[in-house]
């Protein structure tokens, strides 16, 4: 690993000042992704600003029934938090389906939003990759694509966003609070991550000097929510397809629904088309299938990942069916 | 170079190191505590698991400078019934993953006692630690010899 100058920030102000005017600086939270990428020489910061001691570790209830999650809350602490387990079971379940217990003890919420793809060609320095080296091409297209995307991809990049946590956040209408020496702003999670288009190396709407300070969730539309993850081994593997869903039904009709997909797109994929079809529709397996087909209508597969299109449809149906039958909490 | 004061197995250990030195390398290469193993060096195998203030972490993805002021416990600092149980249950073959397995299991038992849920737990926790629970909660520790049955047996014996 290349060396760097190290700054430990005791407070947010120090952290923000340390990166202002420093074009090649990185914030270091739990380190579970950044340290690995630095060891692989994919990330090569000159300055590392350690933010792991910042006092952004609270989970607070907001007036109106929402919740504010400090950017440095550890994954394990968030998954175990009583507020999250009772009001947002989909979030607790999504976290517990991700990584390992050791990694969840280290990884932070803010860092999770910024984690980078696990595309093998991105990691392999000998392969062409438009994310790692803009303009060099994409070795994944025409390569081994089992873990690649079918929605929102481009001819320049088909990598997927690896997060489970973010898929739940997308379904829960999360907002991200970011801060820099220029001030504080908030943006919806749906606008935080960017689709690759012709600039796959631009992954988020975050400026280099901006720090994620919190994630806020509005009151849930229903506490009946669930996360379902399909993967190549039972635990400790990235998703082939995952579904975060919340469903409320009255008189046999869908009165509220939130759906997001993981493992299929370059960003946590809010399934707006499926939601539109479902709202007001009868809560039946047939309607779930119609909605899933509407969402996946625009999907395009490569040789190795076309199976994900049908797998995503079936996983959407199965998750909604589970919610319909029991709606159990985490 | 950065001056770092680590606290490992109850002893203060002042170090003068480069900031990119991982906690794992600090333990093994600077402090001579080679019980903690380097497997993948990328957070995928769990061989490097140690405890930081009683919580299990992957020391390969931790920079040593980040852990100043934390109480680090390695296999050399443990005196725990799991160690004998691993021997009795044949919880290893080559032994390379064993220190990580044992540190991880110590952290896991504490998490379970504190009510940490898992992907397997459907109800609020407490209660018995089933084999399925142990396998899920220990999935961050790989054993290429495949001694999983012995590992699960050893943990179950101590959990009872």
Detail the topology: elements first, then pairings.
The complex is a heterodimer of chains A (330) and B (160).
Chain A: E1 5-8, H1 12-19, E2 25-28, H2 34-39, E3 47-50, E4 59-61, E5 67-70, H3 75-80, H4 82-87, H5 89-96, H6 101-106, H7 109-114, H8 120-123, H9 165-171, E6 175-180, E7 183-188, H10 189-192, E8 211-217, E9 225-230, E10 241-250, E11 253-262, E12 269-270, H11 272-278, H12 285-296, H13 307-325
Parallel strand pairs in A: 1-3, 2-3
Antiparallel strand pairs in A: 4-5, 5-8, 6-7, 6-8, 9-10, 10-11, 11-12
Helix pairs in contact in A: 5-9, 11-12, 12-13
Chain B: E1 2-8, E2 11-17, H1 23-30, E3 49-52, E4 55-58, E5 71-73, H2 81-88, H3 98-113, H4 131-137, H5 148-159
Helix pairs in contact in B: 2-5
**Architecture (CATH level 2) name of the largest domain in chain B:** Orthogonal Bundle
Distance linking N and C termini of chain B: 47 Å
Structural classification of chain B = alpha+beta
pLDDT averaged residue by residue of chain B: 96
Adjacency order of strands in the biggest sheet of chain A: 4-5-8-6-7
What overall form of chain B do the CA principal axes indicate? globular
Radius of gyration of chain B, CA atoms, in whole angstroms: 16 Å
Question: Mean pLDDT of chain A, as a whole number?
Answer: 97
Number of strands of chain B: 5
Order of strands in the sheet with most strands of chain B: 2-1-5-3-4
Specify the structural class of chain A: alpha+beta
The figure for the number of domains of chain B is 2
For the sheet with most strands of chain B, the description reads:
5 strands, mixed
Measure the end-to-end span of chain A.
Answer: 40 Å
Give unreliable regions of chain A as ranges.
none
Helix segment tally of chain B? 5
InterPro entries (chain A): CO_DH_flav_C, CO_DH_flav_C_dom_sf, Diverse_Substr_Oxidored, FAD-bd_PCMH, FAD-bd_PCMH-like_sf, FAD-bd_PCMH_sub1, FAD-bd_PCMH_sub2, Mopterin_DH_FAD-bd
Keywords (chain A): Oxidoreductase
Pfam families (chain A): CO_deh_flav_C, FAD_binding_5
Protein name (chain A): Xanthine dehydrogenase family protein subunit M
């Amino acid at each position: 690993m290349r060396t760097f100058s190290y700054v430990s920030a005791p407070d947010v102000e120090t952290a923000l000042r340390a990166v202002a005017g420093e074009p090649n600086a990185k914030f270091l939270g739990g380190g579970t992704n950044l340290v690995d990428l630095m060891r692989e020489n994919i990330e090569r910061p000159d300055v590392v600003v350690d933010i792991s001691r910042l006092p952004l570790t609270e989970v607070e209830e907001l007036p109106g029934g929402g919740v504010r999650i400090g950017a440095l809350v550890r994954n394990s602490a968030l998954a175990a938090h009583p507020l999250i387990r009772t009001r947002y079971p989909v979030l607790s379940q999504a976290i517990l389906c991700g990584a390992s217990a050791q990694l969840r003890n280290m990884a932070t919420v803010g860092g999770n939003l910024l984690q980078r793809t696990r595309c093998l060609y991105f990691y392999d320095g000998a392969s062409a990759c438009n994310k790692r080296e803009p303009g060099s091409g994409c070795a994944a297209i025409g390569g081994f694509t089992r873990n690649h995307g079918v929605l929102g991809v481009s001819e320049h990049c088909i990598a997927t966003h690896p997060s489970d946590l973010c898929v739940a956040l997308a379904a829960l209408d999360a907002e991200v609070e970011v801060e820099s020496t220029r001030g504080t702003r908030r943006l919806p999670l749906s606008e935080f991550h960017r689709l690759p288009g012709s600039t796959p190396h631009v992954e988020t709407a975050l400026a280099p000097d901006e720090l994620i300070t919190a994630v806020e969730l509005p009151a849930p539309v229903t506490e009946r929510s669930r996360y379902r993850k399909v993967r190549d081994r039972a635990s400790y593997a990235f998703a082939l397809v995952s579904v975060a869903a919340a469903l409320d039904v009255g008189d046999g009709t869908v009165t509220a629904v939130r759906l997001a997909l993981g493992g299929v797109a370059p960003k946590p994929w809010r399934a707006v088309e499926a939601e539109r079809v479902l709202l007001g529709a009868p809560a039946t397996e047939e309607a779930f299938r119609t909605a899933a087909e509407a969402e996946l209508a625009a999907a395009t597969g490569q040789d190795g990942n076309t199976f994900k299109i049908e797998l995503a449809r079936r996983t959407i149906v199965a998750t909604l069916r589970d919610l319909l039958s029991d709606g159990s909490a985490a | 170079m950065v001056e770092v004061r680590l606290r490992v197995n109850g002893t203060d250990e002042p170090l003068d190191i480069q900031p990119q030195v991982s906690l794992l390398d600090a333990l093994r290469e600077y402090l001579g505590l080679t019980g903690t193993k380097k497997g993948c060096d990328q957070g995928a195998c769990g061989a490097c698991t140690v405890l930081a203030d009683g919580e299990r972490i992957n020391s390969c993805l931790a920079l040593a400078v980040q852990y100043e002021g934390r109480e680090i416990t390695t296999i050399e600092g443990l005196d725990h019934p799991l160690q004998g149980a691993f021997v009795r249950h044949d919880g290893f073959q080559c032994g390379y993953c064993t220190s990580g397995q044992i540190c991880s299991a110590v952290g896991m038992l504490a998490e379970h006692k504190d009510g940490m849920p898992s992907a397997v737990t459907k109800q609020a926790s407490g209660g018995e630690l089933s084999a399925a629970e142990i396998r899920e909660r220990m999935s961050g520790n790989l054993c290429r010899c495949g001694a999983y049955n012995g590992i699960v047996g050893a943990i179950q014996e101590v959990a009872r």
